[in-house]
Write a structure and sequence with these properties.
Blueprint: H1 16-28, H2 31-39, H3 43-52
């Protein structure tokens, strides 16, 4: 395993964190998206890829 994502949520979190986890699962099941994450040169590029991702 070479990609790890951590989501921190307060104990009283709403269902929003579950929606985020679902979206992360969809992102990481996309082989091309994972490859682009691996090729990202820096944190800013990673942030851009995640922010602009669409299913």
């Amino acid at each position: 395993m070479d990609l790890v994502f951590i989501l921190l949520a307060p104990a009283a979190a709403t269902d929003l964190h579950l929606q985020i986890l679902g979206e992360l699962a969809a992102m990481f099941s996309d082989e091309d998206f994972r490859a682009r994450l691996r090729r990202a040169p820096d944190a800013a590029a990673l942030h851009r890829l995640i922010s602009e991702w669409t299913p």
